[in-house]
Amino acid sequence: MSQDKVVALRPKDQVCQDVKPIATICRNLGASTAEKVVARALGEISQSVAGLADQVKAHELEDMLRPLRRLQRMSESLGLVTLGLIAADLSQCITYQDVTAFSAVWARLLRVADMALVEGNNPMGLTQS
Is residue 93 within 8 Å of 102, Cβ to Cβ? Predict the structure, then answer.
């Protein structure tokens, strides 16, 4: 195959968010407290993804199911629908021992997590420190 026939793929993932969980948090806690709670939760999601990345680098895939379920729950509780769904998909890849699918879904999780956790896309416009 000649190099001029190689197609460069540019994945275009979209981050789907549900604003209802954040609205409920704001309504129950007030804006100031809700902002702190959401910022802390986003920080935990960011740390969770970083921890999972360490496990992937160490090839400890079988130990990722529990942290992935936690990531899924945290994402869903903040309305980060896409991130939660991808975490569930990644768990299935591990369960079925599908290394090829795992690689693709892992790359997608990293892309979506990056997009979901930037200032313009995350709930309440918060950034992690």
Answer: yes
What confidence tens digit (pLDDT) does each residue in 36-89 have? 999 999 999 999 999 999 999 999 998 999 999 999 999 999 999 999 999 999
DSSP-derived secondary structure for 42-103: HHHHHHHHHHHHHHHHTT-GGGGHHHHHHHHHHHHHTTBHHHHHHHHHHHHHHHTT-HHHHH
Contact 52, 119 (CB under 8 A): no
Print the domain residue range for 112. Answer: 17-123
- Under DSSP, the state recorded for 121 is T
Task: Determine, yes or no, domain membership for 58.
Answer: yes
Q: Is residue 8 part of a domain?
A: no
Tell me if 34 sits within 8 A of 26, measured CB to CB: yes
